[in-house]
Amino acid sequence: MRITPIDILNRKFPRKMRGYSMSAVDDFLRELADDYQSALEENASLKDQIALMQKELKGYRDVDNAMKEALVLAQQSAEDVRNAARREGELIVREAQTQATHIMEEIQDRVAEYERQLDQLKEQRKRFGWEFRALLQAHLDSITSGLSDSAITTSKELPADMVAPSGEHAIA
Questions:
Q1: Is residue 149 part of a domain?
Q2: Sign (positive/negative) of CA torsion 72, 76, 81, 82?
Q3: What's the pTM value of the predicted model, to 2 decimals?
């Protein structure tokens, strides 16, 4: 059982002869009761302060935990953003490579088509040259045979630029 300051004040001791002075004992008990009351009040005040500080400490711990969770979440979000950016960059590179491959294939197809067309034009030019040469030869043969069959005109009747220096007929 706990002793209160009132218990100290109300405490009575039996009297004996040659005992302590009653007034001195009563004065001491009053002082003791006052000091004990002060100690109890201070103890209660300190308990209130401890409770308040524990409540504040719990608040700080909650904030600390929330900040740690936020930091972990921010780090995770940053890592997610980095990974997404890396994946997007890889996708862009793959698309660019695919597009470049497609463009190169188109260019190679065009070059092949141009080379084929060039080969056709060269073949046409050769054929034209042969056909033109054959046509010229046919005309020359026709002219030559036409001259031998018809009456040969004299050089006086031909214009000056059609007469060869040796006296033969020439075609300009």
A1: no
A2: positive
A3: 0.42
C-beta separation of 9 from 33 below 8 A = yes
Determine the structural domain holding residue 10 and report its residue range.
Answer: 5-133
Query: How far is 29 from 40, CA to CA, in rounded Å?
Result: 16
**Cα(82)–Cα(105) distance, integer angstroms:** 34
DSSP per-residue codes, 20-64: --HHHHHHHHHHHHHHHHHHHHHHHHHHHHHHHHHHHHHHHHHHH
Of residues 1 and 137, more confidence is placed in 137
Q: Distance between CA atoms of 159 and 157, rounded to whole angstroms?
A: 7
Q: What is the pLDDT of residues 105-159, one digit of tens each?
A: 999 999 999 999 999 999 999 999 999 999 999 999 998 887 776 545 544 455 5
What is the rounded CA–CA span in Å between residue 108 and residue 116? Answer: 12
Structure tokens at 40: 């109890």
Positive or negative, the Cα torsion across 18, 19, 21, 23? Answer: negative
> Which residues contact residue 22 at a Cβ distance below 8 angstroms, ignoring those fewer than 6 apart?
15
Residue 140 lies in a domain: no
Give domain status of residue 155, yes or no: no
Q: What is the count of structural domains for the chain?
A: 1
Q: Is 108 part of any domain?
A: yes
d(CA 84, CA 92): 12
